[in-house]
Fold:
Amino acid sequence: GLGLDDYYRLRQAMPATPAVRPSQAELRIYDEPAVQSRFARDAGDGIREARLIIEGMRCAACAWLVENVVARVPGVRSVEVNYSTHAARLAWDAQAVPVSEVFAAVARAGYKAWPHDEARAAALEERERRVLLRRLLVAALGMMQVMMYAVPAYIAGDGDMTPDAAGLMRWSGFLLTLPVIAYSASPIFAGAWRDLRLARLGMDVPVALGLAVAFAASAAATWRGGGDVYFDSVAMFVFLLTLGRYLEQRARAVAGLSLKRLAALIPTVALRVTDEEHLETEPLSAAMLRVGDRVLVRTGDAVPADGVLANGQASVSEALLSGESRLVARERGDRVVGGSVNCGAPFVLRVTHAGADTVLASIRRLMEQAAASRPRWVEAAEHASGYFVGFVLVAALAAWLAWLAIDPPRALWIAVSVLIVTCPCALSLATPVAMTVAVGEMARANVVVTRAGTVESMSSATDFVLDKTGTLTRGELRLAGVLPLAGLDAGMTLALAAAIGRGSTHPLDRALDAMVEGLALPAVYGRHPRAGEGIEATLAGVRVRLGRADFAGALHGLPVPEAWPGTRDTLLWLADETRWVGALRLADELRPGARELVEGLRARGVAVHLVSGDERRAVESVAQALGIEEVEWRASPERKLAYVRALQLRGARVAMVGDGVNDAPVLGQADVSIAMGGGADLAQVRADAVLLSDAPADLARALALARRTRAVIRENIAWALAYNAVAVPLAFAGLVTPLAAGIGMSLSSLLVVGNALRLRR
Structure:
């Protein structure tokens, strides 16, 4: 009725329809502000965002259906469902539709939606694991018992076993294989039946067909009392295939450990201060904290929310968040990130961001967004696997017809061997597992990707374009000198520069604000920032400019005065319509690991470029210190954009690493963009990945991991193609028994999954 015919064509499993759907009255509880605040956040402009759990999904087509059904609800802006984690990211217009309508739409589609809860998510994952484990145990027990009755028949010579004993062995194998087929293999047959009913060739079709033919032919031979039986092959094949699926489920769980690690950083209980004078507290759930609350963080406790230090000093560890092992000192008024661990004296924190608005929650949303996206590698592998299944069925039919003419008694078993020996799973399974593991490992390397395609794009990058301030340098500028030029003293020159730059997010202006804190600043009006150049404002009716020499000097056209000859520091010039007013010299330090980043990129054959809007002397100083030869200075945002485009026109795959608002356009143009974790919000939103730590060398580690991921995926695909290219002709020629075919197919699947898990080393 919704016109979603593709769902019935693509799905691989039936949804588990709830026995009783929740009523609209029951769902309206999620519209209550107090309840909704525990799982949703305000994203601005009346849009709210929430994380949900979708229960009852059996395959990727279920996730596709939920997305399409929910997207049709009026007022829903976006919805992304991740089948691997059963999590959904929802954005809706709270004025247009209550969230209970979304829950109702999910229920009408045959699933259950719940507010995301770590305990519930863990319970669903554990239930899935237990069911798979039970199927695996039944298959293992059945396989071992069937082999006990099959081995005597294999080793017995002519006349060594009486007909009664042989019959006993056959019937015992039949009875012991029944529960393996009926229970452990039931998902395979159910999936194949749905695929055939929907005229779709899925991976379960050849496997189920091979199992059914082998079991039916063996049962018929048992009933007749003569002929070959392969109950041991059937039981072993089901065991190995179930083992492969169990390991896949565990691999998905392992790949999601980074998300679970982030969730575990925030404590469950917080101590809210009720009496600041006597420091009395009350325990409450950390999820119930609100902006403005004051909480006590004891020594050794994790910080329950983002906030600022309300009293004294603090020493916190952000190792689990950013990877930095050193302790970070905080003063009163300084920002403290939720998830940090208090390694000093107890302190009181004033909450500024809680729940879904914290830094950790933002990082987790980025990771979930990456896990929900589908890179080209995955889509190509799934597309190829569909054609491959068709080839398998045609090959099996051809083998049966050919051997009917050559040796009719062997025709059936050779066709079964062709069906079973092939391994389409390697094409469609190992690639997503490798990508999922890679996203989690990227997070462990302090690089959070916002889409899974980032791994693919980064692995093929040929050129890295790096910004200077805040990327290769700390961005924590300090005043190294003031040069008054218009009869003002150094203090007034500094105060005027700070007044013009006030409110800017650029590190230069943040440094000025810190230098003149507490001083009276002159009143300036009409600030007009010029990206990459400086700021223009009006002081007492006169235009003044602060920024690069060419930008500030354009007001009067006078030559630039001599200032600090030979310096490599950043110079900030101040001028009005008639004269030069002054100059400021600001020094910055290289980030630890900047040299290792450049060396690591070069060692991997990547060209390194330094493109900055700063003056030539400051940019060349950094370039010389790091050994970067491709350098561009005084680069406006437009010039940075043109620089990247020029590289791309020459065939380069460009990765851009930036830190500020000025970098947002070029981050969008690059093939892959990376923002520093301390940079501006806009840069992080536009970027494909965010570096959490202050160590640029982590980017070289991320590049190495991306290339390892590409290599692993290529190895998996190459193995799958090579295995099938060898195994299918051998099976067609009658050189592979059904038992050997089952072992080969299952081991091939396990090999590619295990190869993908090597990325965790």
About this structure: The chain is about 50% helix and 20% strand. Residues 4 and 65 are 8 Å apart (CA to CA). The first strand starts at residue 40 and ends at 44. The longest helix spans residues 118-155.
